[in-house]
Amino acid sequence: MISTFRADAVLFDMDGTLTDSIAAVEAAWGKVAKDIGQDPAYVIAATHGKRAIDNLAQFKPNILPHQMDSEVQDFEESILFFADAYRTHGPGSRRSPPTYSSESAVDSEVNTPSLTPGSSAPSSRASSFAFDSSRRPSFASRLSSALMMSAVPEAEVVSPAEFEDSSMEGNHVDIVEQHWNDKSKFHQLKAWQIEAAAVDRSVRILPGVKKLIDSIPAGRYAVATSGAKTYAYGCMTRVGITPPPVTITADDKRLKAGKPAPDPFLLAAKCLCYDPKRCVVFEDSPSGIRAGVASGALVIAVCTSHERSKIENCGAHFIVDNLEKVKCDFIDGQLNFTILS
């Protein structure tokens, strides 16, 4: 069935809609689950589409308020580490691992106008983007250093399917452990050292994304994601997407709540200077779809991370397999959409 409609602007979710980093995200949450003694499958399912700050508050309630920003950044750096480990420490590894610091992430509060007078001042987190020799090395920097000391030999890197065989893990433990003098530290990091480099969890761009983005004029689209700056900008830049000037990340201090509340999409529409009811939201997760519906926008759900049966009752106006099913033409100052659902 073919449907057509017009809109003023587009509000994209990021992961699961534009990018696919689900393997790295699940690995990171799986590690959190193991650290706290919970079932990884349960934690992974419960955290999808929600802000890391909200998930960490739920599953690690002992984190103090003043520690949360650092905990979120460390967690999101771990996602990017999982995404890059196979490439940087497996086949074709480089001697200089990539930097995951948020120095390269652009503050969404600096790049979007304020909702109210006086609220456009940069976040207090912005000062941490500059190098501070007194600040402890980032989690990923420490972990990268550890891996460089005991990189997995190229011949020992296995495919995801092969790694499902638990007997392979023991082989990697033996290979890497011999490089460590402090066995206690080795056993704390072995899951990262061995498994992260053994499985390809690279970030990928999803089908139809580039063509759709290229068809929308600048200033007519934004990204509103449950990821904070480190993760959001890291994912998009890794697949060749230039984060738009209006990119609302989870650590934007103007947000009172994350998805499934509509706040991220309402803020994005406001920053674009368009009525959210004249916007189109693209989403993949149940919480994100509900957020888009609550914002008053027309919502198009994509079946890239969930089966259709899992999202068809969340209120989306259209459900498509992926963004290859969506066409946009800019005619007479309007975005004209064609949906093949």
From TrEMBL:
The lineage of its organism: Eukaryota, Fungi, Dikarya, Basidiomycota, Agaricomycotina. GO terms for molecular function: sugar-phosphatase activity. This is HAD-like domain-containing protein. Gene3D superfamilies: HAD superfamily/HAD-like, Putative phosphatase, domain 2. It comes from Lentinula detonsa. Coiled coil: none annotated. InterPro entries: HAD-like_sf, HAD-like_SPP, HAD-SF_hydro_IA, HAD_sf, PGP-like_dom2. Residues 119-130 have a biased composition (Low complexity). Residues 96-118 have a biased composition (Polar residues). Residues 89-130 are annotated as: Disordered.
